Amino acid sequence: MNKYYRSKIAAVLVFIICGCGFMHSSLWAQSDFSIQPEHGKSYSDTLTLDLATSIKIALQRNHGLAIAKAKKQEAEAKVGDTRTNLLPKVSTSFSYTRLDVAPFFPTSRFAQLMGGGRVPSGLPSGIMPKIITIGDANNYALGLSIQQPIFTGGRIWRGYRIAEYAATAAAENCQRARNDLITEVQQAYLGVLKVQEYEKVAAEAVKQMQAHLQDLQNMYDVGMVTENDLLRTKVALSNTKLGLIKARNGVRLAKVAFCSKIGLPLEQPIRLTEKLQIIDLPPINLEDAIRKALENRPEIKAMHNNIKIARTAVAISKAAYYPSIFLAANYSYRRPDRQYNPKFYTTWTISLVAQLNLFDWGQTAFQIEQAQSQLQQTEHAMKQLQDGIVLQITQTYLSLLEAKEKVETTKINIQQAQENYRVTNEKFKQGLVSNTELLDANTLLTQAKTEYINALADYRIAYANLMHAIGDVKY
Fold it and tell me: β-strands 104-106, 138-151: how paired?
């Protein structure tokens, strides 16, 4: 009986400790985000939070969501960037060049030209200079250029469309990060409520065991029970107190993890206002849930845009078979002028440039094949994602149904365990059952209460997970 009793006590303690350990593993997340206390308050002031407020704080301070928002802004800026490729580009330039020697023409060469290839004889010396300057050592150029693509086989326009699709996909990924964060905060909040209920059950178990020990001491004093029974009860009380210590540590750890999740300082004292209790949740049909998920999930919407991007990339790669036509206009203000005078003059040019790739050793064909392969990969990824969502919805839906049934079952178990303990306690006082049987009844009652707490938390968490899987995350 002693071995059996100890195994029952150990089972309950392990149940509570594992529950607290589970909260540690599922809620803990490192965060170096720090804030200063509000004006007039300090970290010693307890912060009262309901679930909605907790989610609001997390949405404002979570680093992961901030990164997703920044990526969304980056993608939106990329749309504007690619849009500019459709418009004319206007640029200006200025240059100054200083020559070591101004351009000149030697008179000896001029004389040769005038004399038919030989220097004429009999010319008086000093009449002609040795060189004739025909330029300026200082050269200036100020220009204005305009370039406009006329036809590129659709490359520029399709590049702009790809940027739009990518921006939409980034927005959906941002929404996905937001949904993930909300669900994680819900889980963390419910986790704190869960371990707080563990603590209450452990505290009640200690009080109940202390009262039983006092009764047993009185009975021992008059010789109604043995010393062995008294020692067993004292050991049971010590184990129960140990369970209470573990539960309290679990509460502290869960609160620290919760503060980390929503972006509060880890040392911030908090008090959660909501209760871990059964609530009426709207009924959900499995087929409707799957249909809504395939329509609403941000991952599905983002993947649709990825498919559009891949298809457009195929069209862009095929555009290499078409010519590219550009229009360019230049207006310049230069010095020296065309007659090499040190004066400024204006000049302009208009060019229509057409370029066509005639032979590239099959590079374009290979690029088209790559783009088509990427499109196939994206389409298969979409089918894989859809199958995964259907499986996820089915699993979370069945988990919700199971959790709901478990709530009802464990609620009945508590009533039965309470009645069993009451009857056993009465029989023990009458000497009809042993102290070990009463301790077993107490253990069963504590276990039933703990299982009911788990069932309540699992039901709420299962519903939150199902809403997340459907893509219907509100707040």
Answer: unpaired
Give the integer Cα–Cα distance in Å for 365 and 371. 10
Burial class (CB in 10 A: 0-12, 13-18, 19+), 335: middle
Burial of 452 (0-12, 13-18, 19+ CB in 10 A): buried
Residue range(s) of every CATH 1.20.1600.10 domain in the chain: 2-100+152-324+360-470
Least confident window among 145-149, 183-187, 433-437, 448-452: 433-437
> Among candidates 366, 454, 356, which has minimal Cα distance to 407?
454
- Give DSSP secondary structure letters for 348-379: EEEEEEEE-----TTHHHHHHHHHHHHHHHHH
| Tokens linked to 71 | 């990526």
Mode of pairing for the β-strands spanning 47-49 and 270-272: parallel
365-389 tens-digit pLDDT: 999 999 999 999 999 999 999 999 9
Q: Mean pLDDT, to the nearest integer, of 76-96?
A: 94
Whether domain 2-100+152-324+360-470 has CATH 1.20.1600.10: the reply is yes
The dihedrals phi and psi of 296, each to the nearest 5 degrees, come to -100, -20
* Whole-number Å distance between alpha carbons of 319 and 265: 55
Distance, CA of 339 to chain centre: 68
Question: Which residue do the tokens 């209460």 mark?
Answer: 449
Q: Amino acid identity, residue 84?
A: T
Beta strands 345-355 and 324-335 are antiparallel
Residues 435 and 232: their CA atoms lie apart, in Å, by 9
Q: In terms of C-beta distances under 8 Å and separation of at least 24 residues, what long-range contacts does 350-359 make, across chains too?
A: 351/327, 352/150, 352/325, 352/326, 352/327, 352/328, 353/325, 353/326, 353/327, 353/328, 354/323, 354/324, 354/325, 355/323, 355/324, 355/325, 356/322, 356/323, 356/324, 357/320, 357/321
Phi-psi region of 340 (alpha: psi -120 to 50; beta: other; left: phi over 0): left
First to last CA, the chain: 54
Residue 470 neighbours by CB distance under 10 Å: 24
Kindly report whether the global pTM for this prediction surpasses the value 0.85.
no
**393: CB partners within 8 A, 6+ apart:** 286, 289, 290, 293, 466, 469, 470
| Tokens found for residue 68 | 């997703």
The DSSP bridge pattern shows strands 270-272 and 324-335 to be unpaired
E strand or H helix that includes residue 452: helix 435-470
Q: What is the DSSP string of 267-317?
A: T--EEE-------------HHHHHHHHHHH-HHHHHHHHHHHHHHHHHHHH
